[in-house]
Specification:
There is one protein chain. By secondary structure, the chain is α/β, with parallel strands linked by helices. Helices cover 36% and strands 17% of the residues. β2, α2 and β3 form a beta-alpha-beta unit. α1 runs parallel beside α6 and α3 packs across α14. The mean pLDDT is 94. The structure holds thiamine diphosphate and magnesium ion (MG). Magnesium ion binds next to α15.
Length: 552
């Protein structure tokens, strides 16, 4: 594009639109109104949410599906409200652009006490520096365009949030827009890449029982097909982890299940991975959660870890190797196919028999019944709580998407995230698993879903309080108010509500919900002391860890 001039606000949203942003989630404020006016005039649809945390979670989920997303807020009262959601996006590599309105350049001259200011005019930007890969305050019209381009490119390149602060008296100014050269692709150091590949191929060739752990970066960076090509050509089985759960179809003949130490989806996948002599971790985040709270048994001498940040083969680390170069070369390399016979081939969940329809529900059965209904048009959006742990056990041949804050673990994610999912891909039907506690945090965003005519199916897993916390350590602090969850539909003026106490009831209401075209809220009564097998393991391990230091 040749150099030209345009109003700052016009360029900002034009450039974001060119970079595939189609929706923005936010709440306006006086410092942000001139920016919102430009947003309104742009091709990007602006969605006003009930509260900024909801906007942040919606934008995060949107970014995970769309490849980039946008949240627009006002200074500090709005921006600081959304920091937690953006921290989660940073931690889990979700490319969200945060735009915040701000006091004007002129307002800042004598450093007055202006409403929404905390300590200095730079406070919010400095807070955001901790949760973003690039930030800017657009105080200079000569550099504004360059700064916008720099931040958006960093967002796309690193798949992490960036922060752009727009002073209200800058956004209408005409700025210089220099010619924008195309981004420089990152390239590997040829010798380092060659050495990494040679050691990797040697290790794979010598392995009797290699396994591929498909990590979440494969999905974020669009590299899943390359990993599948490698697995298929070399006949190497694949496991995912909780963050990357939907990366591979669960009926793929090479798919083993979700690995996570003692929190794996079943013992076969755990045994397979832990007895492998070559664990190929591709794009994997090694976190306490994905490694089952330190229960994973993965010896570094048997592992290869390749991500966008590191390439390590056993104890050797190779610098300046780009993940896509490494994976691309591996996928095309000559590897003699391995012998593999599946220890636990895919089975569909068992349909409900007549004689069990009146049985009480428990978490394992809820997960089974959910699995019976999911198909390719569904996106399971899970909040933090037993919904997330239980979801490890979801098994269906139809490849439903799966989105959850599975590492950062912020409650309140799922209901607003379902709005982001629907806006990013209207063909996907969100299937929300949310605890009663998490629902009380952000469930009011169903109001936004109703207004936008979206149709999430929301299972409120109602176990009367903070079940997960109760399992780690019980106390009065885990008691929450009892709500009649279906009544949210009266409050927000739309959607249908139902209660499920038995297996048959849950099956019936999910079937009806799948056939309907509106928000469906299902109050799922889970016995207070029940939990999924995965939560049982996790809470046992956490309780052991938290109690280890007791008395010190
Ligand atoms: C924002 C936030 N606050 C607190 C926590 C700590 N926490 C983790 S799970 C949990 C309880 C969740 O309760 P609920 O949503 O009812 O799900 P359940 O555990 O009962 O399945 C709490 C308080 C958190 N992860 N995120
Ligand atoms: Mg609960």
């Amino acid at each position: 594009m040749a150099s030209r001039k345009a109003p700052l606000g016009q360029f900002l949203f034009e450039y974001l639109h060119q970079n595939r942003v189609r929706h923005s989630f936010g709440v306006p404020g006086d410092f942000a109104l001139p920016t919102f006016a430009w947003l309104d005039r742009s091709k990007i649809q602006s969605i006003t949410m009930c509260h900024e945390p909801g906007a942040g979670f919606a934008a995060d989920a949107y970014s995970r599906i769309n490849g980039i997303g946008l949240v627009c807020v006002t200074y500090c009262v709005g921006g600081l409200n959304v920091v937690n959601a953006i921290a989660g996006a940073y931690a889990e590599k979700s490319p969200v652009v945060v735009i915040s309105g701000a006091p004007g350049r002129k307002d800042r001259e004598k450093d007055p006490l202006l409403h929404h200011k905390v300590k200095t005019f730079d406070t919010q930007r400095r807070v955001y520096d901790e949760v973003t890969v690039a930030s800017t305050v657009l105080l200079d019209e000569h550099r504004a365009a360059e700064e916008i381009v720099r931040c958006v490119r960093a967002c796309v390149r690193h798949k992490r949030p960036v922060y752009i602060e727009v002073p209200h008296d800058m956004v209408d100014r005409i700025i210089d827009i220099p010619a924008i050269p195309p981004p420089q692709p990152l390239s590997s150091d040829a010798r380092s890449l060659k050495a990494a590949l040679a050691e990797t191929l040697e290790m794979i060739a010598a392995a009797r029982k290699p396994v591929l752990l498909a990590g979440v970066e494969l999905h974020r960076f669009g590299l899943t097909d390359l990993a599948l090509k490698l697995a298929t050509r070399a006949n190497i089985p694949i496991a995912s982890d909780l963050l990357s759960k939907s990366a591979v179809a669960e009926n793929h003949p090479l798919y083993l299940g979700v690995y996570g130490g003692a929190m794996s989806s079943d013992t076969t996948v755990r045994q397979y991975v832990e007895s492998s002599d070559c664990v190929l971790m591709l794009g994997t985040f090694i976190t306490d959660m994905s490694m089952g709270i330190y229960t994973a048994r993965l010896d570094r001498n048997r592992t290869i870890l390749a991500t966008t940040e590191t390439t390590s083969v056993r104890y050797h680390r190779y610098d300046d190797v780009q993940f896509h170069d490494y994976l691309g070369a591996l996928a095309s390399a000559k590897i003699r196919p391995k012998r593999f016979s599946h220890p636990n081939p895919h089975q569909e969940p068992k349909p409900l028999a007549k004689n069990e329809l009146t049985d009480e529900l428990d978490m394992s059965q809820i997960i089974r019944i959910v699995s019976l209904h999911l198909d390719e048009t569904c996106c399971v959006v899970s909040d933090v709580g037993d919904g997330l742990f239980g979801a490890i056990g979801i098994r269906t041949s139809r490849r439903a998407e799966f989105i959850a804050p599975a590492y950062y673990l912020s409650m309140g994610f799922a209901v607003p995230a379902s709005i982001g999912v629907s806006m990013a891909n209207p063909a996907l039907r969100p299937f929300v698993l949310v605890g009663d506690g998490a629902f009380q945090m952000t469930g009011n965003e169903l109001s936004t879903a109703v207004r936008l005519k979206l149709r999430p199916i929301v299972l409120v897993l109602n176990n009367d309080g903070y079940g997960t916390m109760r399992k780690i350590r019980d106390g009065r602090f885990n008691i929450i108010s009892r709500w009649d969850y279906g009544r949210i539909c009266d409050l927000v003026g739309g959607g249908s509500a139902s209660v499920a106490r038995t297996k048959g009831e849950l099956d019936g209401v999910i079937r009806r919900a799948m056939g309907s075209n509106e928000v469906c809220v299902i109050d799922v009564r889970v016995p207070r002391d029940d939990m999924s097998p995965q939560l049982k393991t996790m809470s046992g391990e956490l309780a052991r860890l938290r109690n280890a230091g007791k008395g010190r």
